[in-house]
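User: hey, got a sec? need Class I SAM-dependent methyltransferase folded
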Amino acid sequence: MIDIASGHPKIDGYLDTQYESVRGMSSRFAAAICGHVVRRQSEQGIVGDIAEIGTFEGRFFIALALGLADGEHALGIDLFDWPNAGVLPRMLKHCERGGLSSDRFTAWKAHSGKMSVAEFRAKLKQPQVRFFHIDGEHAYDSLSKDLELAHAVMHPQGVIALDDMLHPGYPTLITAVIDYLKRYPEMVVMCIVDRQDIVAAAKFLICRNDAVALYEQDLMTTFARFHFISGADMLGHFTLVLTPQLGNVDVGWDDPA
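Assistant: Yep! Here you go:
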């Protein structure tokens, strides 16, 4: 197991003892980094709820929700019908076992593509969402709708995390992201968090361009040994890349000096 931590005691306790026992595909590496972002937000006085589309049995959701500050709430949205009707009871059991009390979260059995912004806002305890994880239906139209929903409720200094970007099984997802970034040029991919190595499916962390400074240098400093120094060109923005296997990788050429 890769030695990586969020720096938040409750999140790290869950990652160390229970994360891998909860069914799901999100990596511990990504959970620790996103947990660190949630902790960083609290330290910077950024207040808001946490939301997730595609909660399944709660693996990633619990890690995020354990980073809540007083008065904040976590909202997990899913149809909770796959692979069977037992997924919601299992999710609730995992939350209890993980130390997430029932008054700190809501499991909302709903289709995110069919809800209005007003319906979503009615489920929030805070006026805005500060961290929004999207891991819903992996199709262009669905991701586009989920991004619009997230955009409408985001804190100005909040972060949207997108799962399974660059995954070979879902090649059209990236086009939905690019189209979203073109619709909202104030938004940028601030960080790419790899799952296993530089060729595995990654998470994109998106925020407003004027909020990048809140996160970028902190992530580079905290997770320096995982920093892929070549970065990534995302529509003209030089994006930070964190990957568990390669670290400060040799990019393949010698210094001509």
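Quick note: Confidence is low (pLDDT under 50) at residues 247-257. Let me know if you need anything else on Class I SAM-dependent methyltransferase.
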